[in-house]
Design a protein that fits this description.
Length: about 240
């Protein structure tokens, strides 16, 4: 299945480039600015985090403001400022905890969302004409990730145990890469179709409080999580 999808993607890209070659006239410098929104699909470590951290996360929302200035009709330098958020899969976490309790207790979970924002700068390689432009990019920059506050309450023996996983911010270097398709609508306004990845490795100071009755035990350790997400979406683009 994966091989079929790769071949289909290659055929689409080649077809678009071939069509673009026959467009009426090529822009000498295809500068642009765009506002984009779409889905955020978590991958690998970010998709399936440890129970003590945030369990699995769901498909979420991505957004970005992006612009590019070109040296010629093929090569440009661009800036992307954006982010993505994903909710903790509380149902999945509850099932994991229920297994640990051997179905003899009850669990309730409150959780905020993971929130990630970034600013990335780097080269764009573009091909196309008056109607369609295909952009390939590889950007690097800073990304901030916020580990959410998660409160887990379990009750096995009539005295509830509250496990509070504290929120934590972390900054690290990251990458934003992908392909965009710009389709002219009217004048300088166009539609943009996006498929891009974001990658960053963050280190958090993970503090957990265990509260039973009037007593509290706190534990702290460093954890490292690799964030990988596939952002798919659309946007409005202004070409100038």
């Amino acid at each position: 299945m994966a091989m079929i999808l790769r071949k289909l993607f290659a055929v689409v890209v080649v077809s678009v480039l071939h069509f673009s070659a026959y467009a009426q006239s090529e822009s000498e410098k295809p500068h642009f600015i765009s506002l984009n929104v779409g889905t955020s699909v978590p991958l690998k470590d970010y998709q399936a985090l440890d129970t003590l951290n945030a369990s699995n996360v769901n498909v979420g929302l991505s957004f970005s403001l992006e612009g590019g200035l070109y040296f010629n009709k093929f090569l440009g330098l661009g800036l992307s400022v954006g982010g993505f958020s994903n909710a903790v899969d509380r149902d999945d976490m509850s099932k994991q905890i229920q297994k640990e309790l051997n179905e003899s207790g009850m669990a309730s979970i409150k959780a905020d969302d993971w929130v990630n924002v970034y600013a990335m700068l780097g080269p764009y390689l573009s091909f196309g004409g008056e109607v369609i432009v295909v952009d390939f990019k590889f950007l690097g920059g800073i990304m901030n990730s916020q580990k959410p506050l998660i409160t887990i309450t379990t009750d096995e023996s009539g005295e509830p145990l509250i496990q509070k996983n504290h929120a934590e911010d972390a900054f690290a270097f990251g990458f934003n890469y992908g392909v965009h398709l710009r389709v002219k609508l009217i004048g300088g306004l166009g539609l943009r179709i996006n498929a891009e990845g974001v990658v960053s490795e963050q280190e958090f100071k993970n503090k957990v409080d265990y509260i039973r009755g009037s007593g509290t035990i706190s534990k702290e350790k460093k954890i490292t999580t690799e964030f990988k997400t596939l952002n798919l979406g659309v946007g409005l683009v202004f070409n100038f």
